[in-house]
Amino acid sequence: MTENAQIAVLNRAPAAPDAAKHFILNPADTGAVESYLVLHAPGDPQAALQAGALIDHILARYHQVHMEDFPQAIALARKVEAVHVAEAECPDGLADHLAVMADELAGHQRKEETALFPMMRDGGGPMVRIAIARMQAEHRDVVEQLTLLAVITKDFTPPQEACRTWRALNQLCRKIDRELREHMRLEDAILFPHFAGAV
Ligand SMILES: [Fe+2]
Ligand SMILES: [Fe+2]
Questions:
Q1: Which one of 22, 32, 130, 192 has the largest count of C-beta atoms within 10 Å of its C-beta?
Q2: What is the mean pLDDT of residues 183-195?
């Protein structure tokens, strides 16, 4: 499915048991969702629906998409590194760095999917702050990994004479950088503060 097709699917109203009775903001309209969740406590039934829709959006639009993008980027990087090994501009170590990022991100997402998000869907609770603090620490590690990704790819800029594979690799790395940052922003700036207060 193309990126635009995925976004179109996600923009449809999320499934909720009696969604017709409730007004659910489009989770892609993050400004509206943020305003709503800032003004309503986790116990509020409408806020619970809204937070649930945002979690669904994060899972489908980011968790799943990263796990599709990383294997492609790793495969492209292995190809480029093998073909251009003798060239000064070759992005040495890129495939290995992407593989480490993918592995650690998969673990991070699994913790959100199996522990933190279910707690949030249940309305929060005392453990939620601890889980959020751990996820925020892992987000800081991801930011460091993205900084190194930009260094290895020279700010996602291939050399002038780069082949199509090399260009595609840089485009995909740039997409991963942009979407990982937006994914973490939704969690750090909107979802987590709703459940943990201003953190
Ligand atoms: Fe996440
Ligand atoms: Fe996260």
A1: 192
A2: 94
